[in-house]
Amino acid sequence: MPSPPPPPVRVAVVGSGAIARGRHLPALADLAGRVSVVALSDIDPALVAATADHWGIPGRYTDTGAMIAAEAPDLVVVCTPPAAHKDTALAALRAGAWVWCEKPPALSLAEYDEVVRHEGAAGGPYASYVFQHRFGSGARRLRRHLAEGTLGRPLVAVCHTLWYRDAAYFEVPWRGRWDTEGGGPTIGHGIHQMDLVLSLLGEWTEVTAAMATTARATRTEDVSAAIVRLASGATVSVVNSLLSPRETSYLRFDLEHATVELDHLYGYDNAHWRWTPAPHVTDPDAIAAWAPREDEPSSHRAQLADLIGAMERGERPPASGPDGRRALELATGMYRSALTGTTVLRGDLTPDDPFYSALHGGDPAAATAALRRMEAGTGARDL
């Protein structure tokens, strides 16, 4: 007889803001039967009550530590502002719970590595991070092609996160501050596409970057750009912006036998991908087989299902450990490069480097002043 299904994973959600209500709770509801949301915490008791009522969540708390102690969840989903990511993850791991945390994973590599040190041995618990764009069928298919060499060697890539956030967006107290958000669009927005590129193309080796505070009231950057060299020999152009009225998230991979493009905004399905053969590739059957047959959109649900499977098997999930650290490491290299005016090697980001502990390099006021000096045209108003 087949084995009975495992009992549902008991989930506690920390934070009941827009990302929890709009993404995480719907994804958890879609996996009813495999998961059971047993509790919700938030510092706003009225928001906890309204959200828990809407989703039928029995446990309601305003203290995350009390929730974890009382409910003993298997999985803690972290939907807080970035400054609370590390401490929430540590509290969950210490209680024996797995963690799924919104981006950015942490405010620094030092924080990230501290969380890793509190993970369990083989079998978990582990902390993983929301990088849902890896998990759509288009990315899965391209990853397979790259592993099998179907499309040839990657040569050039483009990674553009061109979004728009108006002045009101930065009036939320924790946004645009080194101590509460960690940085600007490089870590808070573009990190999604940067993670997708690195998950496909592999490790980076050096980065040369520029940043500026050009038009928004923020202590951090509102635009960044970089040239990234990969261990494979490929070169990647990265641009992150919150100043772009026609918003797009655009990735392009130029390989020996094809160009593969992804043009979307906050999520994709197969229609957002384009597969273009090189002139010397003429076999229509081979070209037709490039795109995936199934059409699974990128989504929190897709990644969550993968994570629950890893929990059931007692395996480290994707987007955790070294695999979850890669994009944060590249973002750190970009801040170090832009603020010091140097090319940064991946090996430079050691624990004795000031950027390992903070993306501003240890002097937030000096970093803010430097970004404003780099501005072109009109600058940001004073905070």
TrEMBL record:
Cross-referenced InterPro entries: Gfo/Idh/MocA-like_OxRdtase_N, Gfo/Idh/MocA_Oxidoreductase, GFO_IDH_MocA-like_dom, NAD(P)-bd_dom_sf
UniProt domain Gfo/Idh/MocA-like oxidoreductase N-terminal: residue ranges: 9-121
Record organism: Nocardiopsis sediminis
Pfam families to which the protein is assigned, alphabetical: GFO_IDH_MocA, GFO_IDH_MocA_C3
Protein name, per record: Gfo/Idh/MocA family protein
Domain GFO/IDH/MocA-like oxidoreductase: 140-249
